[in-house]
Amino acid sequence: MASNRKVKATNRMVTEIIIVIVISLVCGFSAAKLAGGGASQASSSDSSQGSWIARVKKAGVLKVGMAEAAPTLSKNSKGQWEGPWTIPSETIAKALGVKVQYVTTSWGNIVAGLQSGDYDLAAGLDITLARSLAVGFTAPMTGTNNVLMVPKNTTAKTEDALLTNAKPIAVPQGSAQESSLKLKDKNVLSVDSFPDAIQAVNSGRACAVLLPADTAVQAAQNNDSLAILVPQNPIAVAISGFGVSHSIDSSSLATLNAAITDAVNSGQIQASFEKVKIDTTITNGYVEASVPAKYQLS
């Protein structure tokens, strides 16, 4: 009898141990599942925001590539970037809780810098077929007909006379203006920037500069020896947005487009142009600069 009781006690102990082990395993599995579920939900939350946005938030900074094209892309006396393209940049950064870092580049390198990840956005990038093969774009924010800036005393009074002139037309290297003229097989003088292109006209090395209307108006405001020829047949239309990586997710791109739409519809972009005395209208959802008659070639 004592032996039987001992066996029963042993069996009961083994059973209790097995029950404890099973309960421990079940509880552990449940806890792991709950923890895994929480991680999955967090991951899902990050994904719903968009992977591009999540990456910018993790970095704590929104990097924006900037190449000079005054007045929309220019530095103030303190060396700080200013103009309409900083408005949506600051808005996006504030919404994401990060800082903005403007990265100075050139028109010849701005696309390559975006491709290599030097910055998250490229500001004021003209939307062209050639560039679209390398990078993507947001919705446009500004648009204008490119114009020809010439000396007031020029004898070439039409775009045809300028486009067939023995002297070249100056443009920044890597710019949409350069691509447009080369596609038309025109004589081109490629320089580093729009100010350098204007200087080429002043020095007589070029017969004209092909440039956006707002840039031309500001140059005419600062130099009364220059005039603007608005082509009757557009040479190149500049419609500009932010350049983005081809890999950007649709959710993040929609957020960027919303920031641009808000900046345009709120009047902030037009107000930025007005500060530098550039007349604008809103066309097809983007801001378009115009050329006052007093600056046009007569």
UniProtKB/TrEMBL annotation:
Domain Solute-binding protein family 3/N-terminal, residue spans: 61-290
Record InterPro entries: Solute-binding_3/MltF_N (IPR001638)
Keywords: Signal
Pfam families: SBP_bac_3
Name of protein: Amino acid ABC transporter substrate-binding protein
